[in-house]
Amino acid sequence: MTTIASGLPNPYAQMGSAYARAAAARQPSLASTLDTLDFGNPFDPNAATNLTLSDAARAQLASSESTRNFSAVTADARLALDGKYAAANVTAPLDADGKLTIDLSSFDRRSLFAIATNNGGKFTPDEQAVAGSDLDKRFNNALVPAASTSKLIGNYSVAYKAALDYLDGASPEEKATATWTAQRAAVQKGYEATQQAPGKIPAGILGDPVAAYLAQPTGSTAVPMTFDDVAKGVRAALDAQQDAATRAGKELVFDPGRKTGQPVDLSSFDNRSLSAVVLNQGEMFSNLEIYAAKTELNTRTRLSVLSAFQQGQKSGDPSQVSLGILNTYSNMSDEERQATNWTPTLRDTAAQSYKTTNALLSMLRGA
Q1: 287: exposed, middle or buried (C-beta count within 10 Å: 0-12, 13-18, 19+)?
Q2: Helices 271-279 and 287-315, packing angle to 10 deg
Q3: Is residue 230 within 8 Å of 282, Cβ to Cβ?
Q4: Which of 117, 83, 82, 37 is nearest to 340 (CA)?
Q5: What is the pLDDT of residue 30?
């Protein structure tokens, strides 16, 4: 496990005393709302927040630093696909009816790009199509919280900024393509348009993927898994870990401080799954399991809030703090909000804080 000790200094410190005094008068409302959350008040400049990263977070950080040769990435992707086929007892990513036979969620973006572009001629047309579809899905998923936040605060630059961030996170190989260049240029034009008219979705920009996404009907035609089914899936996964530990002659332990036993691995569970354990609506989970899930869920939420503060400091724009909180809220399922006590009051307070902060900044810039 990796622990980060981070003090959270006043994000308004670099904005000038006039702004700091004005903002300070409004700050306690959002701060006091955040103070009701389990992980305490991140607005306290004297507070040090200890963050324990899960194995998944560590892996994500490590992968972002990766500079592996693209040929090696391609070869590993080929092996990983073959391994998934063997595990699922299939030979292709689609069955005779065109339905998926394997899950590519564990593949990183660079690996998916290698498959989608048939790098090295190692992949079938079906594999290319499935990987390309997964890449499109990830782009849309990156827009989901930002699009919700944009509609809430009436500022579509938030959605365009999220798209720019996603595109800029592409690998060098992806950035070298004409498709990436055209998309990046279109999104940049859209972002610049929203700087002039924040409340209006830009129109007439050829190949603008953000405008296309925002034009889609709200909601999904897919039937989401019921929360009870989510809980049952988590129960089965935890039981499988217990069985594996028992076969190895070890005890499955839920306290990361324990020096003996087999630590439970929650890194593969998404936040809705962790919420199913925390809420324990079907009484399927023990107190130790609930404690471990709540700790993991709070850590992930804490990291998201910390990221918002760091973005505010880095950009010199304190409104990024409220914006980060809104994006986090929008990205949560209803069950996750309940499990972490992220209420509509917190959302509305953050939205008002964002609008007030931007109004103050506009007044100061015009002075």
Answers
A1: exposed
A2: 140
A3: no
A4: 37
A5: 56
Rounded Cα distance between 233 and 150, Å, is 34
Q: Report the C-alpha gap between 213 and 7 in whole angstroms.
A: 38
Q: What is the pLDDT of residues 142-196, one digit of tens each?
A: 888 888 888 888 889 989 999 999 999 999 999 999 999 999 999 999 999 999 9
d(CA 307, CA 61): 14
Alpha-carbon distances of 62 from 59, 67, 73, 114, rounded to whole Å: 5, 10, 15, 19
Residues near 350 by Cβ (< 8 Å), separated by ≥ 6?
Answer: 30, 33, 322, 325, 326, 329
> Looking up tokens 């993927």, which residue turns up?
209
Cα–chain-centroid distance for residue 296?
15
Summarize the confidence of residues 331-343 as an average pLDDT: 89
- Counting every residue, how long is the chain? 367
Most confident of 101-115, 254-268, 309-323: 101-115
User: Rounded distance, CA 218 to CA 21, Å?
Assistant: 40
Write down the pTM of the prediction: 0.61
Does residue 346 surpass a pLDDT of 50? Answer: yes
Domain ranges of the chain: 69-136, 141-214
Distance CA 11, CA 43 (A): 9
The answer to whether 253 and 289 have CB atoms below 8 angstroms apart is: no
